[in-house]
Amino acid sequence: MAAGKGRAEATALAAAAITVVLWASAFVSIRSAGEHYAPGALALGRLGAGALVLCAVLLIRREGLPPKEAWPGIVTSGLLWFGGYMVALNWGERLVDAGTAAMLVNIGPILMALLGGWLLKEGFPRRLLAGMAVSFAGAVVVGLSVSEGGDSSPLGVALCVLAAVTYAVGVVSQKPALRHASPLQVTTFGCLTGFVACLPFSGQLASQVADAPLSATLNTVYLGVFPTALAFSTWAYALSRTTAGRMGSTTYVVPFLVVLMSWLFLDEVPGWLTLAGGLLCLAGVAVSRSGGRTPRPPRTRTVATSAPAGQPTSPTPSARRTAR
């Protein structure tokens, strides 16, 4: 049983790792596609591509509709996280630099841990809170090291904070839905809910797709297929097997991965301060995920009294009392 639990934890951790890598790549694609698509149009195109993939997989697996108990969490997370978060983040990244955006969005995991401890009764483990404090300090260092002179717009700052709030509330709303529906069902119908919420931007998307270069459109499709359809599914899978607070702590790796991807693909060499902040993020995640192991139940020992060969062993007095 211990081996099976260890494999389940390893699988959930691998799913979370896939999520953070793909979400980190999303920041690069958003910056590229956002030059040609407005925030709402980009969100609608991304959600549309993601919904097509998710619905196809759902039909192949024949999972059907989620039970009615899951719908409140699905609709809430779909409106806030899939819809509101993506529009707010796309808009905010147009008005603030990447470092400031990374710092502000990383308020989300802290809110997630607080809401999870309060609303979901997950508690407030000291290791989790300590690890998140270390990771947030690392995120601040990364953000300050790559910021572009501090010329951020107040509106952009407000939008990034709004993105963090909708992200946190969306995740906490999604967790109860996973008790009644599969991760694929929760992700698919959450994505469809966000898509429907963004339909008012359909006219904007239709007009801009005709003028946008192919690379921007391909980036939008990539955002829908990988950071949305795949990454949100692996996130839901991992979230169904751990607490919202611990899952939120893993996302502190994202800013550091964004820096590394910019280094690899955009030749943007990070400074030592950026690398130090990234190491702080990784250390905080390690601390936050190091505790919480369920102790093994004590083993019961059976003591038998010796008896001559061929005669049954007589029960002890305590065993006779228990039998009565």
TrEMBL record:
Segments traversing the membrane: 12-30, 36-59, 71-92, 98-120, 127-146, 152-172, 184-202, 222-240, 247-266, 272-291
Q: Which organism is it from?
A: Streptomyces smyrnaeus
Task: Report the sequence similarity comment from the record.
Answer: Belongs to the EamA transporter family.
Region annotation Disordered: where it falls in the sequence: 289-324
Could you tell me where the Low complexity compositional bias lies? 289-309
SUPFAM superfamilies, A to Z: Multidrug resistance efflux transporter EmrE (SSF103481)
InterPro entries assigned:
Alkyne_AA_exporter, EamA_dom, EmrE-like
Biased-composition ranges for Polar residues?
311-324
- Keywords, alphabetical: Membrane, Transmembrane, Transmembrane helix
Q: Which residues form a coiled coil?
A: none
Chain ranges of the EamA domain: 13-142, 155-287
- Identification of the protein by name: DMT family transporter
